[in-house]
UniProtKB/TrEMBL annotation:
Source organism: Vibrio harveyi
InterPro entries: DUF6363
Domain annotation DUF6363: ranges: 1-57
Domain of life, source organism: Bacteria
One GO molecular-function entry: hydrolase activity
Pfam families: DUF6363
Name of the molecule in the record: Putative esterase of the alpha-beta hydrolase superfamily domain protein
Keywords (A to Z) from UniProt: Hydrolase
Amino acid sequence: MLMIHYQTFELTQAFLSAPPDDTFILQLAPKEELQSSSLLSDPEALEHDYQLGLQTGFNLIQLYDKLNMEGRETA
């Protein structure tokens, strides 16, 4: 299982470093440090990190909406 984890991680890093030409990647990261680790995390840490990621995504949507509305007002 550990070997599969490392292989998957390496494949993901390679994809993020050189995505296909028709792909736009926006990577979000919460300001707060995550509590979980890549292996053997307890359910509470996973839930905490899930909620943190969800809130980070909502914050991006709110910022996008705000900037979109400001752009419409100046146009």
